Amino acid sequence: ECTMIRRVTTPLLALLLAGWVVAQTTDMDPEQYCARRDDEYFRKDFGDPAEFASDYRANCGVYYRCVPAPAGKRSISASQCQSELFFDVQQQICERKSKVTNCEQIDKEHPPQPFWPLREGEESQCKSGEIMCGSGECLPQHRFCDENSDCADGSDENICTPDKDPNRADVCEPRTCLWSQGCFCSVDGTRIPGDLTVDQTPQMITITFTGAINERNFRIFQDVFKDTVKHKGNDCTPKGTFFISHGFSNYSAIQELNRVGHEIAVSSITNNDNPDYWSKLSALDYEAEMDGARLIIEKFANITANEVLGIRVPKQRVGGNRQFRMMVDWGFLYDSSISAPMGRLPLWPYTLMHRMPHKCLGNDQNCPSQNFTVWEMVINEMDRRDDPQFDERLTGCHFVDQCANIQSPEQFRAFLDNNLARHYRTNRAPLGLHFTSGYFETRRDFLREFVKWVRETALSGDYFFVTMQQVINWMEAPTELTAINNFQEWKGKCEVKGQPYCSLPNPCPKKVPRIFPNEEEMFLYTCMECPNTYPWLGDPHGNGFLDIPDF
């Protein structure tokens, strides 16, 4: 749990705080503190920690940042955590005192950095086309961020971010990226594909659920996506996208979701809850996690090969260039793990053939920096205020689960209406409503409100609940609202009737103590033949030929 800066609520307190800031920064020289510091927070340097340990401890809740000042100079801004919190300089957040162990650490620690990008006025000591490593040697630019450590200190692989990678993708240039030539990009991500007018753009809504599918939440999904509800605009039933994590999933339920037209995508085999695991995972391990999860789904949910094309990384911890290179190599169409901050307009999905049109959001997030033929189904920040017009600005949320202030069905309905209105009245970028798979299990009153909202919205005319792949289909062939009833890419599985493939799936019991030590026996429910062992990393078909490591 982290808490941000204490909010000033009275003029007197504002004056006191202003005086405190001045007192804290008057003896700090900006030229000394702000040299080669970017936007990160830091602490005041009191000297040798062994001698001044009490000073560091007493000021552990105080943190600083270099900000622009008049005449092109920089000044130091001071802030303070709430009284019960300390500032964790490594995580760059205020945290409970018992969790902070770096009070004597001045800056956030970084791995070795090359001398790149050069600051204003700096000159390279290397030949043209070369960059100096942090360890001093010069290497050709193309050897940086190629997933091989070539510098003696490994610094060539430590700047692979969208703003620093010397081989990063080009910025969108609309004058050369022409729709008539099959190219589309948007400088800021807000441009409507095909340059359609707002009133002729269908408002797409993507409902996604991430996690394991079981018998309980499967019944909930059937309530949300009732086969009796149809869009007024094209007579198709609402559809959603399910990002499946393998453990505890019921593959007969997944098969049925796919049969009636919902999209099935992957969210890994292990669902590892350590964010660093996903940020630092190799391309080979990403293949084992994501393509392995796809193989499990294809086999045990009987889904056609090349139909599962989407990825969402657990914890939304993107794996950088390694993840996206794996996606290209193994035929994945899109990722939906990257979040975007709220701006003047919501963002449309974009391809990574050009540089990301927004800031890489998240502490130590590992966003892709290079050119990949992959779509990013960006997760827009949602407004969680009860009244966006008059309420004080709040930090938004990207998953609905994160909107902790929503306590009643009435608030939930207002939240849905307000965010839909924001998209509909501006550029009609797809509205993403993202939930964990168990969200409604403990919120039955919210579920009733959501079922009602989906029905009423679908019947309104301009709104369409579609899958991620259907959004991409439309963006690749923008079709005006007046012709949407004939848009064939949305007609597949438009209205599916009939019975499930099997009403009594095989409850394949498997002992998996090394994977799930708290479970005596795991059941893999499938309409297909039972595997020899519980499918896992390195053995997605459950043949039992490979030893399963501890996870």
TrEMBL record:
SUPFAM superfamilies membership: Glycoside hydrolase/deacetylase, Invertebrate chitin-binding proteins, LDL receptor-like module
Keyword tRNA processing found: no
Keywords from the UniProt entry: Disulfide bond, Signal
Pfam family, one: CBM_14
GO cellular component: extracellular region
PROSITE patterns listed in its UniProt record: CHIT_BIND_II (PS50940), LDLRA_1 (PS01209), LDLRA_2 (PS50068)
Signal peptide interval: 1-23
MF GO annotations: chitin binding
Gene3D superfamilies in the cross-refs: Glycoside hydrolase/deacetylase, Low-density Lipoprotein Receptor
Coiled coil: none
Disulfide bonds: C126-C138, C133-C151, C145-C160
CDD domains on file: CE4_CDA_like_1, LDLa
Single GO biological process annotation from the record: carbohydrate metabolic process
Signal in keyword set: yes
The Chitin-binding type-2 domain, residue ranges: 31-105
Record PANTHER family: PTHR45985, VERMIFORM, ISOFORM I
Protein name listed in UniProt: Chitin-binding type-2 domain-containing protein
